[in-house]
From TrEMBL:
Species this protein is from: Planotetraspora silvatica
InterPro entries xref list: RepSA
Full protein name: DNA-binding protein
């Protein structure tokens, strides 16, 4: 985060970037990429007919840690959607499908 000849938060526009530039670039990135980690969203019909669970509710349902839930989301085993920029939700149908897949794999 160090700019040329100065700290990133210095006011010198000539030698380093400003916090406003960093914020603007982050917002632009969030708008275009939606920070989805490359996962595709479930179909809109599935979202409209299913309940959306928060990550802590998913943790409670699976009885696992927050870290494990986020690892499942990152690996693509547990689909999720991003509401706004920071709110991640897990469709209840996706959670049911994941548990069914685990049960079939164990059999």
């Amino acid at each position: 985060m160090l700019g040329f000849r100065g700290h990133f938060s210095t006011r010198s526009r000539r030698y380093s970037t400003t916090l406003g530039d960093i914020r603007a670039e982050r917002q632009e990135h969030a708008r275009h990429d939606k920070i989805t980690t490359g996962r595709s969203y479930p179909a809109l019909e599935v979202l409209m007919t299913s309940e959306l669970l928060t990550v802590p509710e998913g943790m409670a349902a699976l009885k696992v840690s927050r870290w494990t839930v986020y690892c499942l989301i990152r690996s693509g085993e547990l689909p999720s959607v991003v509401v706004n920029v920071r709110c991640r939700r897990i469709p209840a149908l996706a959670l049911d499908a994941y548990v069914t897949q685990l049960c079939e794999g164990a059999a």
